[in-house]
Design goal:
The chain is α/β, with parallel strands linked by helices. Helices cover about 35% and strands about 10% of the residues. The longest helix is centred in the last third of the chain and has 18 residues.
């Protein structure tokens, strides 16, 4: 509430409730991927069960009115916390899961997956996402702390999921030196995944000197991806499905404001950042390190009630309004992601970003290229 007792989250460009809550059971990751954005992935800082209980207890019933809220166990590497600790962290959510109000999701590098992890995924009804970038040469950036490739260990984890009949999606990072869409998609489809998501590498947090593709590289990648998708209609590619679904809407729906998901990301210590998981752990005094509150001292809904009053959220929403007024791509992605504005420009007041160009504008331009 603000001084007049009004909910400061009431903003036409901000969704009233989150569709997902991202939780960091540990900051630790055994890998040391060159493009990773996490600044504290070498530290084994773990969430307590009291923090998890505070999160679960505060989730109101109306948040799941349109379907279960996703509880996304992210990281670091979430499996690095261990099965016993993760099980203890999930226990407070069990009444909500039994009522169909939440669903567990895990995003993992798959290098730690074994039979016991598969049994846990099945017991708690997990949706499993695996991070792998394509065939072995495309995974040159995914290495452990001794610089050793993680590819074989990830493939072992994927095979373990398949042996236990656990469906999984794949999230692949496309860097400037791995933009062959045909080879990438052929390999990813061969794993038996149910869906492929593509993240074009971006400058974010700890990854400020990576291998971000140029706009024309990204545009060529998406041209090849659309062509590949047309030849393999049985394989769902997240970004292509999003764009084609958007284009299939009636014009009033395409032009409507979607409202940005506040996307609360809760660190191991209970601190909450909003709009962009990549902001977690980033030191920035101008924005109080992006911390909007702490669930150990204040319920998550109360933190979200005053989301639009956070300086960085307020700046982002103002810049989204400027995008709406000036950008021909606005209806498609509604101003894209908050974190990329800050990491590319040092402020949330910027409008266009390289990330928006390569991840959202480039697919539209690529589809146009193929249609003319």
């Amino acid at each position: 509430m603000d001084e007049m007792g009004l909910r400061t989250s009431a903003h036409p460009l901000l969704a009233a409730a989150p569709s997902a809550i991202i939780l960091q059971p540990t900051s630790l990751c055994p890998l040391n991927c060159t493009y990773c954005y996490l600044p504290q992935r070498h530290l084994n800082q773990q969430m307590t069960t009291d923090t998890a209980a505070a999160i679960a207890a505060a989730i109101p019933p109306h948040w799941s009115a349109r379907g279960p809220v996703e509880i996304v166990w992210h990281g670091g590497e979430p499996l690095a916390v261990g099965r016993s600790r993760l099980t203890a962290l999930m226990e407070p959510f069990e009444p909500l899961r039994a009522d169909g109000r939440i669903r567990h999701v895990v995003q993992t590098a798959a290098t730690l997956i074994d039979r016991q992890w598969c049994e846990l995924f099945q017991r708690y009804g997990f949706a499993v996402g695996v991070s792998i970038d394509g065939p072995e040469p495309a995974n040159r950036h995914r290495v452990d702390r001794r610089g050793r490739p993680a590819f074989d260990r990830a493939m072992t984890g994927i095979e373990t999921l398949r042996r236990h009949d656990i469906p999984f999606t794949i999230l692949a990072v496309v860097s400037a030196d791995s933009t062959n869409a045909g080879e990438t998609l052929d390999f990813l489809a061969s794993t038996g995944c149910t869906r492929i998501g593509i993240n074009i590498e971006a400058a974010e947090a700890a990854n400020q000197h990576g291998h971000t593709p140029a706009l024309e590289q990204a545009r060529q990648f998406w041209r090849e991806a659309f062509t590949w998708s047309a030849e393999h209609p049985e394989v769902e590619i997240r970004e292509i499905e999003w764009l084609l679904g958007f284009l299939g809407l009636d014009k009033p729906l395409r032009d409507a404001d979607a409202g940005h998901d506040p996307l609360p990301t809760i660190g191991w210590n209970g601190e909450v950042v909003l709009l962009s998981p990549e902001l977690l752990g980033v030191q920035e005094p101008r924005y109080a390190d992006f911390v909007a509150g702490n669930v150990t001292t204040e319920p998550l809904p109360s933190i979200l009630d005053r989301a639009a009053g956070q300086p960085y959220v307020r700046e982002f929403l103002a810049s989204v309004q400027r995008c709406k007024e000036t950008c021909e791509f606005f209806a498609w992605r509604q101003g894209a992601h908050a974190g990329n504005r800050y990491f590319e420009h040092g402020t949330f007041t910027a409008t266009e970003t390289n990330h928006c160009q390569t991840s959202f504008q480039a697919p539209v331009l690529a589809l146009h290229d193929l249609m003319i």
